[in-house]
Amino acid sequence: MTQMPTHQTTTWREPAWDVALLFPPQGEWSEEEYLALDTNRPVEFCDGRIEVLEMPTALHQLITAFLYRALFSFVDPRSLGAVLPAAYPVRLRAGKYREPDVLFISSANAARLRNEYAEGADLVMEVVSSNRQHDLVRKRHEYALAGIPEYWIVDPEHETITVLTLDGDHYTEYGVFARGDTAVSKLLPGFEVSVDETFNAGKAAGLMP
Asked: Do 48 and 79 sit in the same domain of this protein?
């Protein structure tokens, strides 16, 4: 006969359901409530719903930091605009915010830069996470519809950097750069990044052989 579990053999730890009641239900979040959300997790916003993203890995962050430094070092001495790392929201349209890993806003579009978020961007970079569909397909479509002129997809799994440029309401490939190549920008002539150095960014931290 099967023995039923007793209080001594079974431990039930009930989640703190009441915490969820402090926030709006999915589908009913406002932009203001999203922007006021205080969390250490990356969170994006789409038509009344919040999307809690996975925490980035150390390698992801090291690659992002390398790209940020490279772009900042090119932009800042030339007074070309502002370069910001995640997590800083970009408003793509009413009701939709994304948090690119690195973004650039030109001096000509400085009015788009607000304290809480940016109204669009001139260039965005995403380091592909385990949710590949999010960066490779979904954000590619969304950034194009938002009119962002250039999108860099940095893929640690395949060790490629794909530079996309806007053609109407969709992107075309300006270049797909692999190890041994130098990735270059169409929007920012002269800006280039070594693919090898990008994906070797984890070596100093002992994350790569």
From this structure: no
Residue 191 shares a structural domain with residue 99: yes
Rounded to an integer, what distance in angstroms lies between the CA atom of residue 67 and that of residue 127? Answer: 9
pLDDT per residue as tens, the chain (209 positions) = 555 555 555 567 777 766 666 778 888 888 899 888 888 888 888 888 888 888 899 999 999 999 999 999 999 999 999 999 998 999 999 999 999 999 999 999 999 999 999 999 999 999 998 889 888 999 999 999 999 999 999 999 999 999 999 999 999 999 999 999 999 999 999 999 999 999 999 776 666 65
Per DSSP, the residues of 66-81 read: HHHHHHHHHHGGGT-E
Q: Does a structural domain hold residue 5?
A: no
pTM of the model: 0.85
Q: Examine the domain organization and report whether 90 and 188 are in the same domain.
A: yes
Same domain, residue pair 39 and 71: no
Give the domain range for residue 37: 17-52
